[in-house]
Amino acid sequence: MSRKTERIGGFWDALEKPIIALAPMADVTDAAFRRIIAKHGKPDVMFTQFVSCDGLESSGREALLCDLLYSEAERPIVAQFFGAKPENFKKCAERARRLRFDGFDINMGCPDRNIEKQGAGAALMKNPNLAKEIIRAAKEGAGNMPVSVKIRIGYNKNEIETWFPAILEEEIAAITVHGRTRKEMSKVSAHWDVIARAKELAKGTKTLIIGNGDVYGVEDALEKAEKYGVDGVMLGRGIFGNPWLFANLASAKGDRHAPHPPLSISDRLHAMVEHTQTFERVLGGVKNFSIMKKHYKAYVNGFPGALELRASLMEANSAGEVAEKIDDFLRKKDIL
Ligand SMILES: Cc1cc2nc3c(=O)[nH]c(=O)nc-3n(C[C@H](O)[C@H](O)[C@H](O)COP(=O)(O)O)c2cc1C
C-alpha cells in the first residue's frame, strides 16, 4: 500500500464493509452517551458532536474541551468540527492528532442559523472554493490521520452533480452524505436515490461513501447499504433512548435476521440511570443537567406510568435523585 493510500484511508480501510456509523449529534452523542453505547452495542465507528474550530482556537477553549473527551472503548472515534477559517481547521486537525483521535471530520451540512452566519456548516455548500481550501488545510494539520466530510445533497436543490464532485477532487477518506438538502432540513424523507448517485460519482476514487438519513435499525442499514451500493450507513436519531441500537451488529452482518437482544422496561430504565451517572461523572462540572434530561423522553415511554415518571424525572437535578425515582418506580411496579 502506498503511503498516500494510507494517509487517505487510515483506520477507515481496516473496517469491514458495510461500515455502520453512529452520527454526530450535538448534546446527544456526547462523551457520556458514547460510553454507554460502547458498552451496550458498539457501531463500527463513532463521531463526536461538532466542535467550533474558532472557539477551540480562542481564549474560550477550556469550555469546549469537554466535547473532545472520549474513552478508549469508543475507538475508532472521529472528531468533528465546524468553522469557516482554513487556518483554524489546520490547528484543530493538529490538536485532534495530538489528542489521538482516529479521524477528523468537517461539518458541511449543519443548517443552524448561528453556524451558517459564520459561513460554516451548510453555508460551505454555497462556497465550494472555501470548502476545498478548508479540506486542504485540515489535511495539512492532520498528517496521517484521515480526513472526512459530512455533507447534505445540496443547499436549495440537489447539487450532487455539481458541488459534490468538487469535494471528491480533494481525495478524502470518506464522505457522509445526509440525503436531504439544507432547505429540506429534516422535513422530508432522505433521498437515498441521490445518495446512490453520490456513490456512483465516487467510483474510481478511494473515497468511501456513507449514506445517512432515516435509518433506525441495523437490519435496515445493511439492506440500504446493499440496495444503494454505499460503503456504509450512518444512524442518528435511532439511538435516542436506545443504546442497544447496534447490539446485534456483529451477528446481523453474518445473518440479516439475527435477533436483537430482548429488552425489558427495567433494562431500559437501568441503562438510563447508568447514562445519567456517567453524564454526571464525565460532564457534570461543565454541562448543564438539563442536557441529560432531554434523553428521558426517549427512554421513558410506551409503558404504563411513563408519563408520570417522565414528569417526575423533570424535577430531578442529580443522578442520585434519578436513581432513587427509578428504584421507587420499579419497586412499586414490582419489576425490579
Ligand atoms: C439533535 C441533533 C443534533 C445533531 N448534531 C449534529 C452535529 O453535531 N454534527 C452533524 O454533522 N450532524 C448533526 N446532526 C445531524 C445528524 O448527524 C444526522 O445527519 C441526521 O440526524 C440524519 O440522520 P438520522 O435520520 O439517522 O437521524 C444532528 C441531528 C440531531 C437530531
Share in β-strands: 5-15%
Strand order across the largest sheet: 1-2-3-4-5-6-7-8
Shape: globular
The set of bound ligands, ions and cofactors reads: flavin mononucleotide
Give the total of domains. Answer: 2
Order of helices and strands: HEHEHHEHEHHEHEHEHEHHHHHH
CATH class categorisation of the largest domain: Alpha Beta
Q: Low-confidence spans: pLDDT under 50, at least 5 residues?
A: 1-6
According to CATH, the homologous superfamily of the largest domain is Aldolase class I
- Average pLDDT over all residues: 94
Number of E strands: 8
Q: Tell me which CATH architecture of the largest domain applies here.
A: Alpha-Beta Barrel
Secondary-structure topology with pairs:
Blueprint lengths: L2 H7 L9 E4 L8 H10 L4 E8 H4 L4 H4 L12 E6 L3 H13 L4 E6 L4 H5 L10 H15 L4 E8 L8 H6 L5 E8 L10 H11 L5 E5 L5 H11 L3 E4 L13 H6 L10 H19 L5 H5 L2 H4 L6 H8 L5 H15 L3
Parallel strand pairs: 1-2, 1-8, 2-3, 3-4, 4-5, 5-6, 6-7, 7-8
The structure holds flavin mononucleotide (FMN).
Description:
The structure is a single chain. The protein has 336 residues and is α/β, with parallel strands linked by helices. The chain has 2 domains: 3-254, Aldolase class I (TIM Barrel); 265-333. 43% of the residues lie in helices and 15% in strands. The protein is built from 16 helices and 8 strands. It has helices spanning 3-9, 31-40, 53-56, 61-64, 86-98, 113-117, 128-142, 163-168, 192-202, 218-228, 249-254, 265-283, 289-293, 296-299, 306-313, 319-333; strands spanning 19-22, 45-52, 77-82, 103-108, 147-154, 174-181, 208-212, 232-235. Strands 1-2-3-4-5-6-7-8 form an 8-stranded parallel barrel, surrounded by 4 helices. The chain is globular, with a radius of gyration of 20 Å. The termini are far apart. Residues 1-6 have low confidence and may be disordered. The structure holds flavin mononucleotide. The site of flavin mononucleotide has 21 residues, from strand 2.
